[in-house]
Amino acid sequence: MSAPAIYAVFGASGCGRSLMPIAREQLTRLSIQSQIYFIDDALNELTMINGHPALNYSAFQALEVQQKYVLIAIANSQVREKLAAKIQQDGMQLWTVQANLNVVMDQVEIAAGAALSPFVTIGSNVRIGCCFHANLYSYVEHDCVIGDFVTFAPGVKCNGNVHIADHVYIGAGAMIKQGTTEQPLCIGQGAVIGMGAVVTKNVPAGVTVVGNPARILNTNNR
After folding, report:
1. Which of 52, 142, 163, 167 is an active site residue?
2. Structural domains of the chain ordered from first start
3. What is the arrangement of strands in the sheet containing 145-146, beginning at the earlier edge strand?
4. Is 34 exposed, middle or buried (0-12, 13-18, 19+ CB in 10 A)?
5. Left if phi > 0, otherwise alpha if psi is -120 to 50, otherwise beta: which for 125?
6. Is the dihedral of CA 186, 191, 196, 200 positive or negative?
7. pLDDT under 50: residue ranges of the chain
8. Exposure of 18 by Cβ count < 10 A (0-12 exposed, 13-18 middle, 19+ buried)?
9. Is 142 a known active-site residue?
10. Residue 219 has what pLDDT?
């Protein structure tokens, strides 16, 4: 008889290996006894990584179980999006993993596939899209709206009434100034916020901003 469910962390590099203990802790907290695999398409055969079996996607897909849950631990948001579509198309479910030391306040909506590392705080009345990554000590304050495949590096400070579009990357230690209900601070799709940047006004789609206050990086000066 096949097992009712198995779980996997897709990606066995630094991101995946950092999230595996959180995933393991979550199953323990929920009293779920199940195997957790690493998925890594560079592997040709079953191996062990940090005490967990690791195999490629095709081999994981072939395992005979009723349900499969996958956390995508890939930093590149475009790759996350492609993998999320494939995983769901293949009949598996995106897995949301939250550390025991998170704080999630009232009326928070988090779509499937999120990875919330230790000491992450999500304020009240926040909406977050698919496959959000929030690294150590990051926070999202009240009344924020975050799109799909957004990444917070460690220590990101996102204050209230901020709207972040899909595929935004926010570097370690960056700070986003609070907006208002009538005029939220907006960060456009695919924008990159540099490490330690202090964002005080709207950021257009597709640009990189750096510095304090954050300004658009002029790539012609490289």
Report:
1. 142
2. 5-95 (3.40.50.20), 97-211 (2.160.10.10)
3. 109-110, 127-128, 145-146, 162-164, 185-187
4. middle
5. left
6. negative
7. 1-2, 220-222
8. middle
9. yes
10. 61
